[in-house]
Design goal:
disordered N terminus; binds pyridoxal-5'-phosphate; seven-stranded mixed β-sheet; alpha/beta
């Protein structure tokens, strides 16, 4: 495993180890030849694997197989949802030019939305969040009223990747339905941990999924599209009903289906166990470093696997390197672009001060995390924080490298 024999991998929200079931499906398919669009026996065999995988993923997500569009991952699915829906809505009525998007979205949503504003004439309204890191449905309702008749789409993620805070998607879905506006939700961090609501419940029209966050391979994902037209990003062979051209990646799709089935089967064990580990991590850190702050909230609902912590007077990038040397792999709460450390947009939106944001780390657990991982972290953390603080006081940027990991 990635953290080495003794463990210490705390970056499962960036990517989590491949589940054995996914690996078996992946390896088996890599040895099989066949383009799922070919009409001969090999092609038909590949097509069968793809369609059975699609059915199994659709069943787990509570949607129809025809509503699942496979993509190269979460980033492509988010781009297809945002641009594809915007273009389709504008084609239907040029009045639809407003995009309502939460301020805490992943860059795979925020950046396409901002691109629409820059180059496609979109009006963008960013929905603020409270100190707990959650969107307030009443704020969305006010914006839906203010922009009634012009909203092309709303995009609010199901759970935030930096804080783990789960967003009130059911209430947001109800609101969007009332105003007749399509809702996209980036569910990359929550799929796997939680079952999706069934067809009777109010739910998003578009849903982004990424396999490598629940034990599938990197480079495959899906956009669920329910009753909403989307203009394709990729034109070509017309696969997947023209929604996404490109040869179907049989092995990756089979592995994604196997990973999701395994995650669902493991859910009753994993969710409480990982939540307990996270709680013991937070408790343990507060014991050894009582001035540690929690970014977000310890109130439910939140993902079971994320602890977002701020260490006052310690630079997160220095701390990250010191922990790495000690075999602890985690992620900084600040994106460091072109050598300039900028506080995370998520923490800024929550009102975390730039100083605290600069000392913020995300520890994220996964399906194979153990108490030994947490013990190991608690053993090395106090010394690493002390050294990072000394480096800070000395005015040195102790260690520096481009770390854009909070974007993951
Ligand atoms: N959305 C969220 C919330 C994420 O955490 C990630 C992770 O990187 C992505 C989208 C991008 O997914 P992918 O890595 O499959 O492109």
């Amino acid at each position: 495993r990635m953290g080495g024999v003794s463990g210490g991998y705390f970056d499962h929200a960036a990517t989590t180890p491949l589940r054995p079931q996914a690996r078996a499906a992946l390896v088996a398919e890599l040895d099989a030849t066949g383009n799922a669009s070919s009409l001969h026996a090999s092609g038909r065999r590949a097509r069968k694997v793809v369609e059975e995988s699609r059915e199994s993923i659709a069943a787990e997500l509570g949607v129809r197989p025809s509503e699942v569009v496979f993509t190269s991952g979460g980033t492509e699915a988010d781009n297809l949802a945002v641009k594809g829906t915007y273009w389709a809505r504008r084609d239907a009525d040029p009045e639809y030019a407003t995009v309502l998007v939460s301020a805490i979205e992943h860059h795979a949503v925020l950046d396409p939305v901002r691109w629409l504003a820059r180059s496609q004439g979109a009006r963008v309204v960013e929905l603020p969040v409270g100190p707990d890191g959650c969107v307030d449905p009443q704020v969305l309702e006010r914006e839906l009223i203010a922009h009634d008749g012009t909203v092309a789409l709303v995009s609010v993620m199901s759970a935030n990747n930096e804080t783990g805070m789960i967003q009130p998607i059911e209430r947001i879905s109800t609101l969007c339905q009332r105003f007749g506006v399509p809702l996209h939700s980036d569910a990359v961090q929550s799929v796997g941990w939680y079952a999706q609501p069934d067809a009777a419940a109010p739910r998003p029209d578009l849903l982004t999924v990424s396999a490598h966050k629940f034990g599938g391979p990197i480079g495959v994902g899906a956009l669920v599209v329910r009753g909403q037209e989307v203009v394709p990003l990729l034109h070509g062979g017309g696969q997947q009903n023209d929604a996404r051209s490109g040869t179907l990646m049989t092995a990756q799709i089979a592995a994604m289906a196997a990973a999701l089935a395994a995650a669902a089967a493991d859910r009753d064990r994993a969710v409480p166990q990982v939540a307990d580990l996270r709680d013991s991590l937070i408790r343990g850190v507060l014991e050894v470093l009582p001035d540690t702050r929690i970014n977000g909230s310890t109130a439910e609902p939140r993902l079971p696997n994320i602890a977002a912590l701020a260490f006052p007077d310690a630079a997160a990038d220095a701390l990250l390197m010191l922990l790495d040397v000690a075999g602890i792999e985690c992620s900084a709460g600040s994106a460091c672009t072109a050598g300039v450390s900028r506080p995370s947009h998520v923490l800024a939106a929550m009102g975390v001060s730039p100083e605290l944001a600069r000392g913020s780390l995300r520890f994220s657990l996964g399906w194979d995390s153990t108490a030994r991982d947490v013990d190991r972290l608690l053993t090395v953390l106090p010394d690493a924080v002390a050294r990072a603080r000394r480096a800070q006081v000395g005015g040195r940027t102790a260690v520096h490298r481009s770390s854009r990991d909070s974007r993951l």
